[in-house]
Prior knowledge:
Blueprint: H1 4-7, H2 10-20, H3 23-27, H4 45-48, H5 61-69, H6 78-105, H7 108-130, H8 148-161, H9 165-185, H10 191-217, H11 229-237
Helix pairs in contact: 2-10, 5-7, 6-7, 6-8, 6-9, 7-10, 8-9, 9-10
Amino acid sequence: MRSTVRIRRDARRRRAAPVGLAIVAILGLAACSGGDGGDRSGGSRSEAGAAGSDGATAISEDGLTTQLDALPKGDPSPEEIAGLVRMREEELLARDVYVVLGDRWGTRIFANISTAEQTHTDAVGALLDRYEILDPARGHQPGSFVDADLQRLYGTLVDQGNGSLVAALNVGATVEDLDLADLAARASDLPDIDWVYENLARGSRNHLRAFVRQLDRNGATYTPTHITVAEFDAIIAGGTERGPGA
């Protein structure tokens, strides 16, 4: 059974498919490809692909701009503008939290997925530039956010993740859970925003699967708090998503 997040986006995904053929090469959002490896420290050979084999380090500003230029510009509503601003910092929050927890626990999964999160925030930043929207991440310092709610959330997540490896992995799953819910809530009919959001959601589903696998290896489970249990179960039951044409 597919998640409702994916169901309500099917029509838009079909419209965007021709442009989406370059998704893997440009955005590198199909994280954690391949079978699980044997790293018992909280990472695996598959999670190592989050920054390597999935191309998360291959993004370039020129390449992303080229892809966006192939899509028509729209007229974002105030709600869509606010959503872009929020998602720009939310993806930065994910990156910053994972960097801190990777340093704390020395696990590959955090180091690799933090690199993927950089490509996510870069993609949203390109949309801000495209529509000449003030970028809240200009001059960003790690762990410092314009959005007060995200600032509080960052502190809470880091405190929780510093408690134990299992707590840190649970934080990772929570971040991806929140990201998926927020992306679904901010779904847009504008082709360029929809294209970026669809690919961010694909990456978040892959990251969520990776964190849940690691929790399982450590004898723990994750209960979703932002998406529904049905949506979560459908994501976990699915395989790694590589993007259209991959």
